[in-house]
């Protein structure tokens, strides 16, 4: 009996247990949602191909062989130098045969920037609902729109199962540059180290801090100093993008709080959307017309879309400082983060007040 078969069997048992728990906790309508999620995860689990075996086969193209070999080196570095829980994660490859692995649906009221939350076993409450098919996401989006919500649907190329299953390298990310793949792997593995159910800002800020520190160390170790400048520039652009959207999000909220008619609110909302696009064009000009965010700004810029950028990186400075206090020791840093997760909520929030 092969190790792969045993691993799939063990993870299938986990999936059945998780699905069973979900069925007892949710309504009949939601059972269908969890069923599609289980089918999607099963398809990934049983579509896995061992990366080392693919490399050893000699049947890969030179480009794919080089990419897979780099992933194996990234995994080794993540385990040995970053104390990340690599184990069997990213040792397999899955061709999902579609543009994105999942599509996330976000929703917010017409006159509020506070997103709708959905609660799940293990993950807690988050501001999105994920579907393994674009059609499923669109159908749910239409249902929410009929209820009067602002709705935004975005394709996602990778996700973490939080250690419940061995995560695989997916075809949706294989074309990314090597340093981007490294950052992605560090980020997703970080979610298995520490996760605070229901607190997206905490979880994403922590994973982003690990990603950036891990990428810096990886590039230095592999003597790719020229890529460090590119990664820093991309991080800077991302921060400027987040700051721009966050600033306008506050302006939207101010309009929604005004004692004016709904018609006036809609007019002000439309005007702010136009202003946001105009300021983005000015920002893009300072980036030498880098177009990485053009697709995002081509969408409606409604409240649901704005909520996807809300404050996911707000605590990155906090985690950077915590890493400094750990003298750069990743293991000690991770222990400190998990100690914070174990705190009473009010004590934990008090730590974040200045960030």
How would you briefly describe this protein structure?
This protein is mainly α and 355 residues long.
Helix content estimate: 55-70%
Query: Could you state the oligomeric state of the chains shown?
Result: single chain
Q: Mind telling me the C-alpha Rg?
A: 21 Å
Tell me, what's the shape?
A: globular
- The number of helices is 14
Note the topology.
Elements: H1 3-25, H2 28-46, E1 49-50, H3 51-57, H4 62-82, E2 92-94, E3 102-108, E4 118-120, E5 124-126, E6 129-131, H5 134-146, E7 150-156, E8 169-170, H6 178-193, H7 200-221, H8 225-257, H9 262-286, H10 294-297, H11 303-307, H12 316-325, H13 330-341, H14 345-351
Parallel strand pairs: 2-8
Antiparallel strand pairs: 1-2, 3-6, 3-7, 4-5
Helix pairs in contact: 1-2, 3-4, 4-6, 6-7, 7-8, 7-12, 8-9, 12-13
Overview of the structural elements:
It comes from OM182 bacterium MED-G28. One of its GO terms (molecular function) is aminopeptidase activity. This is Aminopeptidase. Keywords: Aminopeptidase, Hydrolase, Protease. With 355 residues, this protein is mainly α. It has a domain of 174 residues. The strands form three sheets. A three-stranded mixed β-sheet has the order 1-2-8. It has a three-stranded antiparallel β-sheet with strand order 6-3-7. A hairpin with a 3-residue loop joins β4 and β5. α7 packs antiparallel against α8 and α7 crosses α12. It is globular, with a radius of gyration of 21 Å. About 5% of the residues have low confidence.
